[in-house]
Amino acid sequence: MQLKTSATQPLLPVSLRSLDDKMAKGIDMTTKGDFVASLAVFRELIQSVPLLALGSH
Amino acid sequence: MQAVAGSAAGDPTLRFNTATLNADAEERVRTLMETDQLPLAYMTARAHNLSDMIEYIESEIMDSEEHDFATIADETEKYLSRSKALVPCRPLHLTEGKSYFTQWPMTNLRAKEVEKAEQMFQKKKFLDEKQADQQFFDNNEFQSANKEVDNILRSEKEEAAKPKAETKVNIEEAKWGEDDDSLGSLDDELEAQGATAGTVADDAGSMPEESDIFVPPSPGADPYQAALRLNPTNAALNIAAGDFTRAMELLKTQLAVSNFAPLKQLFVDTLTLGRVKL
User: Fold this and answer.
1) Using the beta-carbon criterion (under 8 Å), do B223 and A10 form an inter-chain contact?
2) Where are the domains of chain B?
3) Of A55, B83, B174, B214, which is most buried, counting CB atoms within 10 Å of its CB?
4) How many Å lie between the alpha carbon of A19 and the closest alpha carbon of chain B?
């Protein structure tokens, strides 16, 4: 686990990396044919986007 | 209270309100009569069965040209059927009837002021005494009627105040090899150093502490607020700072979010996970 030692923003549960992970998970489930679970993952992904905080760099 | 209201002759409203609070129907009728509200005074007197006043007001109404007694009587009969007594506020009861004999807890402001003034006076007196002592010692320090003794004392004081001049070594006069002092052993040096260190430690330990009370340093700026100040329109930062209402307003205006139920857990996670301490 890598921790930030300095940051301009607080540690938030939603980050670009977590969204990437969810995207990959949803695509993987769609590929496997588990459409119900993939739909839940994609919905969660969309709901998480508004709570994303990004810096200028 | 009624006496105060009565003394305010130019304020019939105050008199009427006070009479209502005191449940003094006669005073109310009297106030209405004095302000030329004869129909109201008549109705009030009838409602409270004040027969003496009823007769007097009836005669006044009949004598006046602007009032019609028949109309007023009809209206009075109509309203009397559904009249309701204006009962003043019920006092608080501790136990049965005890509230009438119990004093309300009141702060004696005058006594407080006196106490405060006394404290200030004592403090001033203490400071004055301290100042007087200081002046006394300043005046008496190293002063003597004998000038010679005074000069000696002053010179001693000046010498003591002067920092000790560093001992200068005349290099030309210094000769190598003439001193008989041996270099000494390493153990002696170490012992001497240990003794010196111990003395220093003792000195440090004997330094007077200012206070036993730990005064924590003042907290710095809130990092959440600092991040929020840089980007105040970000919903996630508002949630992390704990301002859910503002975050919901932002989401509503920016993305037209109306159903926040699915986002509830994300809101809670954002708030709580940002405060995790490892």
Assistant:
1) yes
2) 2-80, 107-144, 224-273
3) B83
4) 13
